[in-house]
Amino acid sequence: MFDIIFYLFAFITIGSALIVVTARNIIYSAFSLMLTLFGVSGIYALLGADFLAVVQIMVYVGGILVLILFGVMLTNKITNVEIKSGNRNIAVSLISVSVLSAILFSVLLGTNWKETNSQIPETTLFGIGELLITKYVLVFELLGILLLIALIGAATIARKEE
Amino acid sequence: MYEYLVNILFSVTGNQFLAQASVMILIAALPLFVVILPYALAAVLAERKVSAFMQDRIGPNRTGYRGLFQTLADILKLIQKEDIINSEADKKLFNISPLLVFAGSYAAFAAIPFSGMFIGTNAEVGIFFILAISSLVVAGILMGGWASNNKYSLLGAMRSAAQIISYEIPTALVILSIVMLTGTLSLNTISELQTAYFWNWNIFGGAAEGFKQFILIPFMIAGFIILYISTLAEVNRVPFDIPEAESELVSGFHTEYSGMKFAMFFLAEYANMFAVSAIIATVFFGGYQSPFGYLGNTLNFPLLIPFEQFFWFMIKGLFFVFVQMWLRWTLPRLRVDQLMTVCWKYLIPYAFINLIIIGIISLL
Amino acid sequence: MKQYLKNTWEGLYTVIVGMKITFKHLFTPSVTIQYPEVKIPLPERSRNRLYVNIDDCIGCDQCARACPVGCIEIETVKSVPGEDLGKTSNDKKKALWVTKFDIDIAKCCFCSLCVYPCPTECIKMTDIYEYSEFERNNLVYSFSALTKEEAGEKKLNLEKFNAEKEAAKMKQAAPEPEKKQDKNEKESE
Questions:
Q1: Contact across the interface for A66 and B129, Cβ inside 8 Å
Q2: Which among A20, A30, A19 is positioned nearest to A68, based on CA atoms?
Q3: Nearest to A31 among B93, B154, B158 (CB)
Q4: Residue B122, class by beta-carbon neighbours within 10 Å (0-12 exposed, 13-18 middle, 19+ buried)?
Q5: Closest Cα to residue C11, out of B285, B339, B204?
Q6: Do chain B and C touch: 3 or more Cβ pairs under 8 angstroms?
């Protein structure tokens, strides 16, 4: 049962990722990216990382993707869609991609994978929460401050001083 | 419930996979047929009737007894309608968009506890999941607005997206304060914590004991008001309906849609209305818990309890849907700048102060 | 800060006031009238569809002349001596057969100007205002009591009578031109 769902999500992820790369129309790429991120989040959920899966949707689909869409829609002429993405430097990218995938594949084969029961796992929520305010509290707070700085900075830049 | 049904089906068919798959599909389809469709049928009629009564009119009363079948007639009409796609539209995205919007609002129902028995997933991340999945609606609306290749649609979609994203912040802040108080993200657990009588509801201070409960009440009411306003904005209802604003944008992002695709948007809107009402009912008003104790307990007939819970949940949810309609015929539409002012200058600061105060009280 | 809190309070308070008003209206009876079943009583002197009581009509043609849009068409035939047309309700002797009394109600402007000159008060406004038709021809109302055949018969009668009279006069070899003219006039109408 879970196998089928996994392959479904994997298919969605990889298929839409292919569209992201090959689509000529950038809007299509953006919307396929949404499907990709969604598929990844589904795989997270299947692996028992429920919190991570929801964060994936919240941050990437709800935040970043909408930002991308806004960017694309606001920066091109609405009546005359001219934004296209093309393929350039095919040879170079082919070599680098094949090298990268070779490395990944060798790592994949060389790793000692731990095998566990494929039961529905317990929620990771409480563990993450505890770790965030005990072991990683400093990092967590620093990230918070970083985001606050980014927010204030954006507001300052966007504001027109008169 | 899931294991129970799987076991039954497994003993009947003898095939583990078939049993699991069919039960999953059944559970996924159940809210649609048990709740959303009948609710949408009733709510569309109720909307028209409420609007009529508030304007001292009669409303639809020709189809069936006092117009009871008006919505059915409307649906028949929508099914028969020609499916028009304007020639300059982006056909693929145009067709996907209503599905995406409906899927987004339907997915939220997976985590809503209709009763102790009837809940799609009892995942620990329930309310967080609902907040996250509603962003799918934003993507769908943007897609529909862009694919229509119509300036009104695009403007409506842009406004809608900006509005939903802005108002997600006060919503999240208020829900965060409740999460701090209850210590869980699961809507089912939040409901269970407000059991027994109505003074245990979160709006009356929740399960906190003694004077803490009394201190909490005003902040809970403030939180409720903030949450109600911001969820109202998230479902694009009046007075926050500037994405649809029929007097300026024809009808916003679904201007170009007709027939069943339009019906999908319509259904999604009504499903969304119920979803946010259900969240409010669960977070502040005890969810599926009865305010006066259960008849099943008094009669010593425990099978009755889930049905009672379902009844109370629907009553609470429908009441808040009614309030949404009530507000619609009371308030005029906000301007875009007023909308943003309400969110960023009023709701967010209040929600933030509320969050801090509730945090301090819960630490006392 | 004070202004800020005041704004917040006003925002909430005014919403509640508005909601109170709409809630009250939720229970006030509706002002809608279910039109085909329930009708508002018309005012006493309302002007609607015209009606002609043809029994009282003396064919004086005054209404047709008064009509500003010319929607009334009247044709009359003189009666032959010996024929008794009866009397109108206010004791006026009828002398003409009204062979045609058509009102094109589609043209009528409901000015009521035809009602005032009628010496026998036989044309009047009724309170019927629902008379829409699918064809424009159906809006021409014919009030004449005589059928086409009867009208033709009356005409023939008159002609015959005139012809007899003419013949009698011819015998007397003293024809009267006035009568002829009169007859011609009738025919040309």
A1: no
A2: A30
A3: B93
A4: middle
A5: B339
A6: yes
* Cβ atoms of residues C99 and C154 within 8 Å: yes
Helices (H), chain B: 2-13, 16-30, 37-54, 70-80, 91-107, 126-147, 151-182, 187-193, 211-234, 246-249, 259-284, 295-298, 304-328, 336-340, 348-363
Q: Do chains C and A touch (3 or more CB pairs under 8 A)?
A: no
Query: pLDDT-derived band of residue C189, with 50, 70 and 90 as boundaries?
Result: very low
Flag whether the pTM goes above 0.90.
no
Type of residue numbered A55: V
Subunits in contact with chain B (3 or more CB pairs closer than 8 Å): A, C
**C-alpha–C-alpha distance, residues B142 and A67, integer Å:** 11
Per the document, the length of chain C is: 189
Mean confidence (pLDDT) of chain B: 82
What is the least distance, in Å, from the CA of B345 to any CA of chain C? 9
CB B313 within 8 A of CB B228: no
Residues of C in contact with B329 (CB under 8 A): 22
Interface test with C, best of B48, B50, B54 (most C CBs within 10 A): B54
Please report the ipTM that was assigned to this predicted complex.
Answer: 0.76
Angle at B259 between CA B258 and CA B260, to 5 degrees: 120
Q: Which residue of C has its CA nearest to B329?
A: C22
Candidates A58, A65, A78; nearest CB to B139: A65
- What is the count of residue pairs from A and B with beta carbons less than 8 Å apart? 73
Radius of gyration over every alpha carbon of chain C, rounded to an integer in angstroms: 31
Give the tens place of pLDDT for each residue, B234-258: 888 878 888 777 777 777 788 888 8
Collect all residues of chain B within an 8 Å Cβ-Cβ radius of residue C5.
Answer: none
Average pLDDT, integer, range A72-101: 73
**pLDDT tens digits for range C28-79:** 888 888 888 888 888 888 888 888 888 888 888 888 888 888 888 888 887 7
Its CATH class, for the domain covering C50-168, is alpha beta
Q: Which residue of B has its CA nearest to A48?
A: B123
- Interchain proximity A125–B125, CB inside 8 Å: yes
pLDDT score at A18: 87
* Residues of B whose CB is below 8 A from A78: 149, 151, 154
pLDDT, one tens digit for every residue, chain B (364 residues):
566 666 776 777 666 677 777 777 777 777 777 778 888 888 888 888 888 888 888 888 887 788 788 888 888 888 888 888 888 777 888 888 888 888 888 888 888 888 777 776 767 788 888 888 887 888 888 888 888 888 888 888 888 888 888 888 899 889 888 888 888 888 888 887 777 677 777 777 776 677 777 788 888 888 888 999 888 888 888 788 887 777 777 777 888 888 888 888 888 888 888 888 888 888 888 878 777 777 777 777 777 777 888 888 888 888 888 888 888 888 888 888 888 888 888 888 899 899 998 888 888 7
Of residues B52, B58, B329, nearest to C22 (C-beta): B329
| B:63-102 residues touching chain A, CB 8 A cutoff | 90, 92-93, 96
